[in-house]
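Quarterly update from the structural biology core.
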Amino acid sequence: MGVVRLSRRKDENRVEVTVYRITGRQLFFDVGRSVCEECDLAVAAVSRAVNELEGTAILFKVEPWLDRLPFALAKGAYHPPITLVDGRIVGQGVVPDVDQVKRAIAAAAERKGIRTKPPGPEQVDAEAPYARQGAVWRENPHH
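Predicted structure, tokenized:
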């Protein structure tokens, strides 16, 4: 019987955006929102940036920081909330600036050869920040 190996290779057709937060389900316990109000604000800011980049293939994930601690520390991500764009830290310990996140996503897309479309004001939908074509919203089910 052969050994099955799971690939950790990144998807070259999408820009991966990850927010590590300390609130919510962490390992075997829950962390209250009052511990890190910036964490929820960071998720909202990054989702707004993702929304505004209509036409760019993006995988947006929200991960529990403690559950992913070894990987996060290996990337230098030690102070939640942490925003990574294709494995590069865009911000940590603060709510990221929406324009800074959009620039980081655009730069990652350019490195991968993914076409981006500049956002227009009509593309921003504040009522449904996670629902847009081309983006995939995935939150860790353990939250």
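The chain is about 25% helix and 25% strand.
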